[in-house]
Amino acid sequence: MAKRLFDYQNEEDVNLPVLIKSAEVRIAKNGKKFIAFNFQDQSGHISAKYWNASEADIAQFQPGEVVLLGGKRELYQGNPQIKINSLRLATQEEGNNPADFMEKAPEATDEMSEALNEFIFEITNANWNRIVRKVLADHQQAFLTYPAAKSNHHAFAGGLAFHTLSILRLARSVAEQYSAVNKSLLYAGAILHDLGKTIELSGPMSTEYTVAGNLIGHIVLVDELVVEAAQTLKIDENAEDMLLLRHVILAHHGLLEYGSPVRPQLLEAQILHDLDELDASINMLTTAYQHAEPGTFTERLFGMDNRRFYRPSKGQTYPDPGLQSK
Amino acid sequence: MAKRLFDYQNEEDVNLPVLIKSAEVRIAKNGKKFIAFNFQDQSGHISAKYWNASEADIAQFQPGEVVLLGGKRELYQGNPQIKINSLRLATQEEGNNPADFMEKAPEATDEMSEALNEFIFEITNANWNRIVRKVLADHQQAFLTYPAAKSNHHAFAGGLAFHTLSILRLARSVAEQYSAVNKSLLYAGAILHDLGKTIELSGPMSTEYTVAGNLIGHIVLVDELVVEAAQTLKIDENAEDMLLLRHVILAHHGLLEYGSPVRPQLLEAQILHDLDELDASINMLTTAYQHAEPGTFTERLFGMDNRRFYRPSKGQTYPDPGLQSK
Amino acid sequence: MAKRLFDYQNEEDVNLPVLIKSAEVRIAKNGKKFIAFNFQDQSGHISAKYWNASEADIAQFQPGEVVLLGGKRELYQGNPQIKINSLRLATQEEGNNPADFMEKAPEATDEMSEALNEFIFEITNANWNRIVRKVLADHQQAFLTYPAAKSNHHAFAGGLAFHTLSILRLARSVAEQYSAVNKSLLYAGAILHDLGKTIELSGPMSTEYTVAGNLIGHIVLVDELVVEAAQTLKIDENAEDMLLLRHVILAHHGLLEYGSPVRPQLLEAQILHDLDELDASINMLTTAYQHAEPGTFTERLFGMDNRRFYRPSKGQTYPDPGLQSK
Amino acid sequence: MAKRLFDYQNEEDVNLPVLIKSAEVRIAKNGKKFIAFNFQDQSGHISAKYWNASEADIAQFQPGEVVLLGGKRELYQGNPQIKINSLRLATQEEGNNPADFMEKAPEATDEMSEALNEFIFEITNANWNRIVRKVLADHQQAFLTYPAAKSNHHAFAGGLAFHTLSILRLARSVAEQYSAVNKSLLYAGAILHDLGKTIELSGPMSTEYTVAGNLIGHIVLVDELVVEAAQTLKIDENAEDMLLLRHVILAHHGLLEYGSPVRPQLLEAQILHDLDELDASINMLTTAYQHAEPGTFTERLFGMDNRRFYRPSKGQTYPDPGLQSK
Amino acid sequence: MAKRLFDYQNEEDVNLPVLIKSAEVRIAKNGKKFIAFNFQDQSGHISAKYWNASEADIAQFQPGEVVLLGGKRELYQGNPQIKINSLRLATQEEGNNPADFMEKAPEATDEMSEALNEFIFEITNANWNRIVRKVLADHQQAFLTYPAAKSNHHAFAGGLAFHTLSILRLARSVAEQYSAVNKSLLYAGAILHDLGKTIELSGPMSTEYTVAGNLIGHIVLVDELVVEAAQTLKIDENAEDMLLLRHVILAHHGLLEYGSPVRPQLLEAQILHDLDELDASINMLTTAYQHAEPGTFTERLFGMDNRRFYRPSKGQTYPDPGLQSK
Amino acid sequence: MAKRLFDYQNEEDVNLPVLIKSAEVRIAKNGKKFIAFNFQDQSGHISAKYWNASEADIAQFQPGEVVLLGGKRELYQGNPQIKINSLRLATQEEGNNPADFMEKAPEATDEMSEALNEFIFEITNANWNRIVRKVLADHQQAFLTYPAAKSNHHAFAGGLAFHTLSILRLARSVAEQYSAVNKSLLYAGAILHDLGKTIELSGPMSTEYTVAGNLIGHIVLVDELVVEAAQTLKIDENAEDMLLLRHVILAHHGLLEYGSPVRPQLLEAQILHDLDELDASINMLTTAYQHAEPGTFTERLFGMDNRRFYRPSKGQTYPDPGLQSK
Fold this sequence. Notes:
The structure is a homohexamer.
Chain A: E1 13-27, E2 33-41, E3 44-50, H1 55-60, E4 66-76, E5 79-89, H2 109-121, H3 126-138, H4 140-145, H5 159-177, H6 183-192, H7 197-200, H8 211-215, H9 218-233, H10 240-250, H11 267-290, E6 296-297, E7 310-311
Parallel strand pairs in A: 3-5
Antiparallel strand pairs in A: 1-2, 1-4, 2-3, 4-5, 6-7
C-alpha cells in the first residue's frame, strides 16, 4: 500500500499525492509572495511553505486540488512540516479525486445511518420520534457528511454523525446503569443536539462558519428546526414533552458562557452535556496522542483549555492511540 | 382624593382598601400559623404579618382579593411595614375591583398601542414590518398588559409595553444623532426583543415564571415565534435580513452569561442592548429613590449588582423622582 | 410492612420509630430553648422543631438515638417537616438499633466488595495492582462503610464504595468503546481517587470533617498513602507508572479551583474526572427528584451550582426516580 | 478633488501625499533594517513596509513628516497595506502641512466650542457651573484638539471634544425623556469626565501615554483638577453638591475593574457611564464598518472585547457608515 | 482587678459595667419590640437581646451609654451572647466614662505619635517630607484616634495609627534587607496611605461610613489632600517625585477590583501593598484566635475571603494570641 | 576587570567570552536555518540570531558551551540584542569553564548553608526539627544549587536557597514584631516550602520541568517527602504538629488557582504565603529595573500579571537597583 503523509519520518524525503486543504497567500520579508499550504490525506494534515509564488502558482494551487508533492519532512519549532522541492497538479490518471484524500470517520456512512436508525427505533414517545425523523430527513445528507467542528474535535468528513453515534452509545450504557434516565428523551436530544451544525458550517471541505452560524449559532438553529417541524406536523410545541426536548437541546453546552441560553434543568439535559464533553475530549486527546511521540507532551490543545497532555512511554503497557473504535 | 398606601407616614394609623398581592402561610416560633402579606395599591406595595391565622383566615385572604386594612405604619429593620389591627374582605359596594389597585404603567394602554403603531409605520423593510405585525397581533393583549419582569424593573401591569416604548423613544434619538444606524432594524428589534416574556411569565398578577419560561427562556421563545411567523408568511427565514433581525433579538442581553446565545455582532444589536440596560437602570433607580428619604441610601438593588444608591438631599436643586414621563 | 417516613402524605398523622440524625439546641424568640431535629429512616430524612425543651429533653434526645415519634407531616415554606406531638426514646424491645434506620447504599457490603475485586483483577500492571491492594487492605472497613460526602452526593452509609463502583462500571463501558484507553490505569485511579475520604471524614454517622480533612484534604491524603505504600512495598515511586497513577488521582477534581493541585494531563485522568462528575450529578439529581412532586422544580441544589431541576409530570412516559440500580 | 488613501481599490496604483503617523525601525530576517510605516490622510490610515532602509532614510522619514508616496494597494492577511515603490519628503510647494492630513472631528473647533457653551449655560447649580468654567478655561486648547484615546475610539484630533459633545447630546435626550434626571449634574459630569486625558495623553499627534497618565490615570487627574479649582474658587469641596460632582466623574468607568475607584451610586453617574459606553461603541463600530466590505465581518475590535461585527450586504436598505453626524 | 466581659465562661453569671456599642430596635414574632444590643469593654464585644422593650427603655439605652449589666453568658448557635436579667444606666459615681470601655490600640497615643515622628525624620526628599507633615498636621487628632476600619481589622480606637506604625516597622525591616528600596518613598506612602479614612469614617465610636466615604472613598480622598497640600506649599504637583508619591498611595489596594484606580507600577508601591495586606491579615487572625478555643476553628472571617482558621491545641508549643506587640 | 555583557552600551562593539544558555534552530523566511541564541555571563543574558547556520555550526554551538563572541549591541523592538559578527568555541586556555558564566546567588553556597543551619537551630519542636534535617540532608546538594524557577524570579544557580533564606530573614522580622507567631512552624515551613523544586526542575543549567514536575508539581512532591521522612523516622504523620507542618507547606501558594490544594488556614501559613510573594516580587522587580533605563518603564513582567513598572529618573534620590543584599 502506498505511503501516506504520516508514514514518513522527520528528515525523510517525501513524494506522494496530497489534497490542498488550505492555501493562504502571504508576503515574505523580501517583499515576494509565498503560499502557506496545509496538505492532507487520510492519515492527517501538515503545513508547508511555497516560496516565491508566481501569479500562475497562486491561480492553480487552490484548496480542493490534488497535487503531487516532492520534498522533505522537517521539524519547525517542534512541529513537523514539509520543505517543498516540487509541486504540480495531479492528472486524472494519477487519481485526482479529492474525496480519496479527506480524513473520514472510522465508520462508513451506511453503517452510521443504520446504527442511527436503531436508536431512533427506541424513542417511544411519538412526538419526539416524529420530530427526530422529520428534522433528520430534511438534513440527512449534510448530517452524514459534515464534520462536527471546523477544527477542535471530530474535524473530519462524517465527524458530525460519528460524534452523534458515539454519544448515543455512551448514552445507552448510562441508561442501562441508571434506571431513572428517560432513554427516549436522551436519545432524541443526542441525535438533534448538534444537527444545527449543518447550517452553521459551510460543508465537509474547507469548512468555515456561515453568516447564519456566526449570527445565530447551531444551538438556536436546530431549536428553530424543531419548532418548525412541530408546526408542520401539527404537534403542539408548548406541550410539556416538546418543552423537554427543546430544553435538552438548548442546554447541551452546559454553561451560559459556552453559548447555551439556559443551563441544564433536567437529568437528561445534564447527562447529554456531560457525555458530549466526554466524547469530544476523548476524540481530541486521541488525535493529539497520534501526533506526539511516546514519552513527550502534546502541543497545547485549544479545545482543552490550552493544556498539554502527556503520552506515556512505550515501555508502559499502553495501547496505541488509534482512532477510537465502537 | 382618598389617601393611598404611600401617603401615610411612619407611626401613622392606616385605614384603607388594598389588594392582596401575595399571602404566604408560615409557622411562628410559638407553633401557630401566620400569614405574611404583601399589600398593594397604585402607590406601591408594603408587607405585613397577620398573627395567629385561623384556617378560615387562610382560606379567605387569598392573593387577588381586595381587603379593608386597619393598622399602623411602622419601620422594621429599616423598611416600612404595616402592623395589622383589623382586616376583612371588601364588599362589592366598597369597590372590590382588583384592577383599581394594581400599579400600572404611567401611560394608558390605548396611548401605548397607538405610539407603537407609529414606530411600526417607520419600519420600511417589508419582511421586518410583516413579521413585527404578525407576531404582535398574535400576542397583542398580553404584550399590552404584562409586566416586563417578575420583580426588578417595570414590574407593573403594562410594564412590558411601557419598557418597549421607552426604548423606542431612546432609539429614535440615537438614530437621529448617528446617521449610520438602520432605523428599521433597530425599531423592529426593540419591539420584539422582550415579547417572549408573554410566554415566559404567567400574567400581570401574582407573576411567576412558567415552565416554558424556565426551560426555554424569553429570548429563544420570541425567536421561535419569529421563525414560525416567517414559515406562515412564506418569508425565507435564511435571507440575510431575517438573520439580522433574529440576531438583534437573540443578542440583546449582550453577554453570554446573561443568557444571550450570541453576543452582539451588529451595530443595531449593540445599541439595542445598551438602550435596554439604560432604560431598565433608570426605571430601577427611579423606583428605588421613591422609597428612600432624601439624604440617605436606597436598599441594595439586586438588579444593579447589589449596589445601594444615594438620593441627594432636598436642599439640592433636585427633581422629585416621580415615575418617568415621556 | 411498616410505614416509613416518606410513605406519609402532608397533613397525615405520623407514628413511627426514627433515628435522630442531628439535634441542635437553639433559643426561641420567647427566650426558651428548643431542639431543631433532623430525623431519618431508610426512606430519607426530615426536619422537626421541639419547642420548650427541658434540660432533661436535651440530655436524652441525642444524635444516634432511636425515638418513637408522634405528630403530623406539614409543609413549611415549601418543604415538608414534622409537627411533633409526642416523643420518647425507643426501648430495646421496640427495636432500638440505629443501623436499621440509616440510609444505605442499594448494594450490600459483601456484594460491593466482591464486585471491586473483579475490577482489581483486571489491573494488569503489577505495581498498580499491588499499590491498590495494599492501600485498600489498610482501609477496607472504612472504605466499605463511609459515605462519599458529608452532604451533597452519596451521603449515606456505604456511599463511598457505591460511588466508586458506579464509576468503575461507567469506566468499563468507556474502555470498551474507546480502544485507546489504558483500562488498568483508569481502574486503579478510580478505586483510589476518593479513598482519602476515609481520613477526611469522621465516619458513617454524624459525619464531619476531621482536622486532617480540613488542613490537608482527601486528594493529598490518598496520594500520601500511595507513596507510603510504595515505600513499604519497595516500589520506585518515581518510576513513570507511579507518576501516572499519582497524577490520575491528584487531577481528578479537574480544576485547580476545585482543589486538584494539577489539572488532568493524561487521557485517563480526564476520563476519570468526567465520570466522577457524571456519577455524582446523577446521584444528586435522582435524590432530589425523589423529594420533588412530578410537574414541579426541586430545591436549589448546592452541589449543582444552585440550580433547580424540573421533575416532569407523571403523564410523561417517565421512570420513577428510584435509587439507581446497577 | 484629489484622491485620498481610502479612495483607492486593492491592486490599484497609488500616488499621493500622506502624513507619516508612525515609523518603527525593525530588523528583517536578512539582517537588514526596514521601516514599518503607518501613513494617514483625512480618509484614514494604512500600513506599509519600507525594505532595506538606509540610515539616511531612517533619519528623514520621521513621524509628522509629509511624504509623496508611490506604490500599490494590496491585501496582506486580509488587511489592506501599501507596497511602496517610491517615497520622498514633500516640499513646501507641494503642501507640506501636517495638519491637512490628520483625521479630524466632523465638526470644526469653533462650532464645538460654541455648542459646549450652550450646554454649560444650562448648568444651573452655581458651584458646578463655576468649577466647569474654571477647569475648562485652564485646559481649553488641549480639550478642543486632543483625541479621546490613543487608539480605540475617537482617536483623531478634536476627538475628545467631539466625544464629549456627542454624550451631551444623548444626555439632553435622556433628560427630556426621564424627568427624574438632574440635568445640571449630568451635563457638568459629562463635560469633565474625560478632561483628564489632556494630562494623560501627550497630544494630538503621535499620541502616547504620559508618565502621569500611566501612574495616576485620567480619572483621578481630573478629580484633582476639580478639588484644586474648588480651593482656588473658595468653594467647600466637601459640600454635598461637590461630592456629587466628583462622584459622577470618578464613577464614569462603571466598574472597578475598568479603573473607577468607586462604582456609580447616583442616577446621573449610572447614566453618564451608560452614555459614555454607547457613544464609544457607536464610534468604534462606525469606524470599523468603514474599513470592511459589505457582506463581511470587520477585524476583531480590541475595544469591543475582541468581537468581530458584520457589515450587512449592500442589497439591504442600509445606510453608508459615514462618520456620525449630529 | 475587676472582671471584664471576656473573663466570664459560658453559663457563668455576669455582673459588670459595659458600654453600649450599638442598639437596634426590632419587632419580635409576638409583635412586641426588643433591642438587639452589642455591649463592649476593653476585652471585646458581645451581643444580647432585651425582650419586651418599653419606649422608655428604647429612649435611655442608646449607643455610647455605660450600663450596669446583670445576666448569664450563653452559647447561641455557637457564638457567645449574654442573657439579660437586669439592665440600668450607670451613675457618674459608678464610673460612667465611655472611653474607659473602648477597645484601644496596645500603644498609647503619645508613644505612637513619637514613633511616627522618628519615621518622618528619615524621609529625606524635601517635598515628600513637607507634604507628609502638612497633611498629617491637618488631621493629627483624627489620625491618632480613628480605627482603621469599621469592622474587619484594627477596628478599635487608635487602630489607624497603630496599623500605620506596624506597616512602618515592617517597612524598615524590608528596606534594610533589600538595598534597592527607596526608604523615603516607602515611609511617606505608608504614613499617608490610609489617612483618607479620617474622612471616610465617622469617628472612633459607632463608626459608620460618611457620604464622602461612600461616594469618593479613602484612597482618592487622601490623594486630594496631597494635591491641595502641594498647591498650598507651592510644590509642583506634576514633578516626578510628586507623581511617585501619589502613585504609591493610589495603588496601595493592589488590584483595581479592590478600589485602586491604578495597579502598582513601582517597587515601593508593590511593597506597600504587600505589607498592608500582611499586617491586616495578622491583626484579623490574632483577633479571631482570641475568640476561638484551642483545637477549634474560628468563625468564617469576611476579610479573609470567608475562610475559617484553625487555632492549634494547647499541647503545641504555641504562643497565646495576645494582641501583637511591637 | 574585563567587561561583561551588561557593561556594553547600545551600538557599541562587543568582544567577550559568553556561555550559550540556549540555542534553538529555526528556519528563516529564505528557507535557510538560523540559530536563535541566548548568551549569558554573570551580568545577565541577551539574545542573538546566527544566520545561515551550517550543520557543523549547529553541532558545535550547543547550550553549555563557552564561546568567543564578536558583534555589536543593538536595540530590536525596544529590547537589546547582539548582532553577531564572529563566533567560535573558547579553548581551555581561554577559560572554558561554564560555571564562571552563570548568574549566581549573591551569597556563596557555604554562607547560605551556614545561615540556614542557624535558622534550623531555632526550630524547637523536635518533630519539625528532625523532619527538616532529614529532608534537607537527602536533597542538600540540589537545594543549594538549583534555581527557584525556570524563569520569573530567582532564576539563577543557588536561587532556590537564596530565595528560601530571604524569606527566613523576613520571617524573623515578622516573628519579632508579632508575638503570636509560632516561629518554629514558620521557619520549618519556609525551609521546606519550595524544596520540591529539586524534583520539579531538571537542574541549575538549561532548566526544564521534569515529567514529575508537570504531573505532580513541587507542592505535592515535597509533601510526599515529608510523610516518607516521618515513616522513616517513626514519627506519627497524623499527630497535630505534623498536620500543621504539612498544611503550611501545601497552602503556601495561597489560592487554589495557583496550585495549592488547600488555602491557608493557619496564621503561619498565611504569613509564609505573603512573604513568599513579597520576596519573589522584589526579586523580579529589582531584576527588571536593572534592564530598564532610568525614567522608562520595564518590559511587561509575566510573573507580575503582565504589568510594566516605572524605573524613576536618576535625578531622584534613588538607589541603584543592585541585586538585593541581606
